[in-house]
UniProtKB/TrEMBL annotation:
It comes from Taurinivorans muris. Belongs to the flavoredoxin family. The lineage of its organism: Bacteria, Pseudomonadati, Thermodesulfobacteriota, Desulfovibrionia, Desulfovibrionales. Residues 13-162 form the Flavin reductase like domain. This is Flavin reductase family protein. InterPro entries: Flavin_Rdtase-like_dom, Flavoredoxin, Split_barrel_FMN-bd. It comes from the Bacteria. SMART domains: Flavin_Reduct. Its cofactor is FMN.
Amino acid sequence: MKALSHLLDSAKLIDPNPVSLVCSKTPSGITNLATVSWWTYLSLDPATIGFAMMKPSYTGEMVRTNKKVVLTVPSDKISPKQIMQCGSFTGRTKEKVKEFGIELKSLPDCDIQIPVHSVIAIQCALREFVDAGDHYFYICDVENVYGDENETPLFAWKGYSKIAPAKEV
Ligand SMILES: Cc1cc2nc3c(=O)[nH]c(=O)nc-3n(C[C@H](O)[C@H](O)[C@H](O)COP(=O)(O)O)c2cc1C
């Protein structure tokens, strides 16, 4: 084993890594999508998930303000380019869903729309957020979970620079 110069170098060695589109609602009522790999299950009882977002992220600001968020895992019917675009521009200055042509749908009892082609959707309420350095870690109570077994999940490869499905070997 050799010493790695950066924590992120370790992610390249454990490809593929998860990828999600975190959906939050902006003041104008539209959905903002942000690509987030650093999310995790945290507890089953109570059902809890968490995700880390850079402190200046617009998504983070919306989640801290509205206390509501839906974490989705995109399927391969969403293009890798669209996922990279959602992870390269901020919703602060760009209406990503419209500009990148991502089709949305509604969930029951939820006022945040999500991408049509999602494998899972975890509807959450923010419990608390923790200062983790250059990121805040958002700890969220799960309110509802949805899934579509006919959709194929996408993952992040090569240090988060490529989006593709995982192949069983
Ligand atoms: C594959 C991929 C994974 C990413 N994972 C994260 C992440 O886990 N946390 C984070 O803060 N940003 C992550 N990003 C970057 C954010 O998506 C990016 O900063 C985005 O512009 C934030 O949008 P917002 O300001 O609308 O919230 C990722 C980007 C890509 C392309």
